[in-house]
Design goal:
- With 401 residues, the chain is of the alpha/beta class.
- It contains 12 helices and 14 strands.
- The chain has helices at 10-22, 78-95, 100-116, 118-129, 133-153, 192-204, 218-230, 247-256, 269-279, 304-316, 333-348, 368-396, and strands spanning 6-7, 44-46, 49-51, 58-62, 69-74, 160-162, 171-173, 180-184, 207-211, 237-239, 260-267, 285-290, 294-298, 326-332.
- The strands form 5 sheets. The protein has a 5-stranded parallel sheet with strand order 10-9-8-11-12, sandwiched between helices. A 3-stranded mixed sheet has the order 1-14-13. Strands 2-3 form a two-stranded antiparallel sheet.
- The longest helix has 29 residues, at 368-396.
- It is globular and about 70 Å long.
- It starts with 5 loop residues before the first strand and ends in a 5-residue tail after the last helix.
Amino acid sequence: MKPLVFRCFYRSVALSLVNRRLAVKLGSRGSVRFFSNNLVRDKAYIGGKWLSAESGATFQIKNPSTGETIASVPDMTAAETSAAIQKAYEAFQTWQYTTPKERSNALRRWYNLMIEHKEDLAGLITAEMGKPVGDAQGEIMYSAGFLEWYSEEARRVYGDIIPSSVPSKQYLAMKQPVGVTAMITPWNFPSGMLTRKAGAAIAAGCTVICKPAEDTPLSALALCVLAEEAGIPPGVFNIITSSRENTPEVGRLLTEDPRIAKFSFTGSTATGKLLLQQCASTVKRVSMELGGNAPFIVFNSANVEAAVTGAMASKFRCSGQTCVCANRILVQEDIHDAFVEALKKQVVGLKVGDGFAADTTQGPLINVSAVDKVRALAQRPLVDARIILRHVNQRRKPSRR
């Protein structure tokens, strides 16, 4: 019986995709024409008001496919963040006492408005994040589904009656909102990750402060427009925007301020560890969804066609930019060549380009840093192989006596 030998082929496929992404020319069409300007906001949303940064500073949002600047939003700091926390804290004093039915109805109206504006919301995702508009439309349905789900679950926040060991006593467990919740959301699902977090908090009777990723704040601000129209009261749902440079001080305040009771984050493991340390100072409740590092392993007994289908879905969703994408593919030796050939045929059929183009299946990477990172990953196996080969050759040289 042959030993299990796996061979890695991912480098050639990845490098090919990187080169094709870099070859995409800057588009001449203005992305703004693809969605309604009624949902585009260039201010943060705090306490029911659209506000600029106190300093007047802004940062640009670019379409990653064309490099075009599509908007500028406030570059806020800890000062504006503290003001947003106070607005959320004040709103919580009344929102926590609303009935489950009231919260349910508000979330349902918000859901209905998302469905009504799904094409505009999808276009906004494509403009600021780059994913093909078909995928963006799927995200909007996925995103709206969270609001629908939580609108129904808001009515089912039941308590418990617990048997007592003392005849004269009865134990009751009541579920109550924890307070102000803070969250930092990622750029790969700028709408879906926000409604998943905020919908649950609002359904429970909590208020929300969210700092969306600096690459994709427009989708979050558009949701504020619809939340306001749905009747979500001022201060219940707040969005602060900040650049990459100001994000650390904003994040520190969100994790250390005692007025915030719960913190939620989706992003890298390294950043998550830092945020957990900061949350410890006030012993906050936390929810962390951190980056994965998953292998995709194919054994000799696998159906090659099914394995390739699974690999395509696992690796190329959102152009490989999700936390559940396979980071490496290992194929057992006997079917390695067949698997590689079958995968190449599928990869050749992918079309990298502007997300608004009808034939695009793969949008751009989110920014230049992401391109540089993937290029480095694609080149690393070559460098590692040279180092190993040099080491082996040195060991093979006859020793001199």
